[in-house]
Amino acid sequence: MKTRPMEIVAWLLLIVAPLVVYAVGMRMIPEGVTEVPLHWNGAGQVDRWGAPSEMLFLPLVFMGANVLLALVYLFAEKLSQMGLLNGTVKGGRTLMLFIGVFDVVLCAGIMAFAIRQALEALG
Asked: Which domain of life is it from (predicted)?
């Protein structure tokens, strides 16, 4: 199964998308906001605040995960031949693509939730 150029473009977009989400999110935070929520406890209460720039860690993690998913996607046939990918190559690729999209949506959701709580804290 040959990888089409559009598949490579799709993965490049999925890799860059968390950084775009971060950039858009940072533009939504009004000037003067020095702290945003960075961690919540089990009850959903913020237990760690930090500078907005500290939120950059989140999209970097999702970008790294999508790079790994893209590599598995691109080398699915070889991984299957080596016995490292069970099921069909097409099924494995579909799963990797789904997880990549889910990563971007999850990153956007976390960023939106954090920004909303930061804005609510302003009053």
From this structure: Bacteria
pTM: 0.84
- Work out the widest C-alpha separation in the chain, in whole angstroms: 58
Alpha-carbon distance of 68 to 74, in angstroms, equals 10
Domain ranges of the chain: 5-40+50-122
Report the b/e string of 52-72 with b at 16+ CB within 10 A.
Answer: beebeebbeebbebbeebbeb
CA dist 75 and 85 (Å) reads 10
CA distances from 2 to 7, 61, 78 (A): 10, 29, 12
